[in-house]
Amino acid sequence: MERRSLTHSIVIYVAAIVLSLVILAPIFWLFVMSISPAANLTAKPLRWWPQSIDFSRYAALLSTVENSAGAAFTSSLRNSVVVSGLATAFAILLALPAGWAVSRTPSIGWSLGAVVGVYMLPPVALAVPLYLALSYLGLLNNVFGLALVYLTILAPFTTWLMKSGFDGIPREIEAAAMMDGAGLFATLRIVTLPLALPVMGVSALFAFLMAWDEFFYALLFTADQHAKTLTVAVADLAGGRISDYGLIAAAGVIAAMPPVILGLFMQRALISGLTNGSVKG
Amino acid sequence: MSGSWLTTRAWLLMLPLLMIIILVIGWPLVDTVALSFTDAKLLGEGSRFVGIDNYTKILSSSSFQKTLATTAWFAIISVAVEMVVGILAALLLNTQFHGRAFVRALMILPWALPTIVNATLWRLIYNPEYGALNAALTQLSLISGYRSWLGEPATAMTALIIADCWKNFPLVALIALAALQSVPRDVIAASLVDGASAWKRFRIVILPYIAGPLMVALVLRTIEAFKVFDIIWIMTRGGPANSTRTLSIMVYQEAFSFQRAGTGASLALLVTLIIAVLSLGYAALLRKSAGGKA
Lengths: 281, 294
Fold this sequence. Notes:
The structure holds two protein chains of two kinds. Chain A is mainly α. Chain A has two domains: 1-54, no CATH class; 71-280, Orthogonal Bundle (MetI-like fold). Chain A has 13 helices and no strands. Chain A has helices at residues 6-35, 38-41, 56-62, 69-104, 109-119, 124-137, 143-167, 171-179, 184-213, 216-221, 230-239, 245-265, 267-280. In chain A, 42% of the residues are buried. By secondary structure, chain B is mainly alpha-helical. Chain B has one domain (46-293): MetI-like (MetI-like fold, Orthogonal Bundle), CATH 1.10.3720. Chain B is built from 13 helices and no strands. Chain B has helices at residues 3-35, 53-60, 62-94, 100-106, 108-112, 115-125, 132-139, 153-180, 185-193, 198-226, 230-235, 247-257, 261-293. In chain B, α12 packs antiparallel against α13. The two termini of chain B are 35 Å apart. At the A-B interface, α1, α4, α5, α6 and α7 of A face α1, α4, α5, α6 and α7 of B.
């Protein structure tokens, strides 16, 4: 470690503190709003610290009493879990064979380029026909329909991640197993798949987070409790005529909880996934 | 095993993916192209073929030109700020100090926060009557009265860009940090011995190592910024007076609010074309920067 002058050290610590505050302050404020009594949030001058701590909004949002505000919110929570889970499972099932094939057969590598190219398409370019098709098939306002549409975003991405994962597994290991008389699928199942589990996990994690985050298609293709996802529910609250800002904040905290917890605990895996493609090329 | 069998087998394994891609992307895209030459309504039967009328109308309309300029402004400023702040944060996190692991862990938070939650949070912060920004600035005596940050054309776009940058600069920082860790220590040590200034050291010694990954971050962020919809929809819906209306918002309004599927499709394809041109331009740049380094 290089030696530093005192002023240099001070600059570094001040910068680190400023950076931490910039990141933490808005998130912390979201949480404070969610537990402050409503009167504190509309007080002038604003009360930065709640007079009493109030968790009632969480209870209200998570209540499952019929026809309550909570019922709509909990159903959107369930829909988000179902849609994100389904779409992730589909995406991984598609990405496994395709990623392996592209990794082991360079001559068809261009097809992956094409698949990743379509990932760049703006969703607005597909929205109208998808809307008409889902409507025709009776899949509007349906979790399966929405999960299917999410594959437009998830499948190219997971295939690309799986391909770079398979690239890291030497073919020689597969060749050795085949030499010992194992068939292709036995080899893949016994030898390759266990080695690919970590990258499969990272791909699934990314896919789940992307689906959880999605808003545009969910806004267009869902209408009520049957399929409306959490992002749309939060947007409804934020855009509605709710006078209690703490309730909106609490909904935001609940929606942010799963990705933030996953993000903090799976930090290494996420960062390796984020930087894998860009650093190694 | 022969080469052609291997290729056939590879295509067979790709088949499920390709079928799904054709179903949910290929066919809708073709259908959008077809729609874009008609005056179709979103609901209701009967549409007429109108040739390139939709396109000429859109391209010559002043609202399209203004929206394109708004989108470009949003993309250029927010991506530029994200790149500069992200690189500075990465340089900081690459030096040693107590608590570095903690600050690094914090960087994942804005990235993990759902875009909708981020937009909602900043909308609350900017609230004209009770928002934290107004309260803080008033209590510090920096402004004399509460302002409607998202309600005035003069401040709405800047307020949006700040919210977008807060969420996205950590991604640039994480990518830049990973790249910085690949710079060999002895290269930096040698430049220290040579007595190069900090800026010179960054530009000549460090930048060549991190240019490739930074280009990738730049490409991804620019394309995302040109497609921007969610954060604007939640915070301003394109207002006030269309001052924050970007191309994706305009397509949404045209196709779904006004139910003009035909012109909506033409507009969507123009957006796609702009993004494709950007992507290709960047791809060329990337190849050049990769060739220059390796």
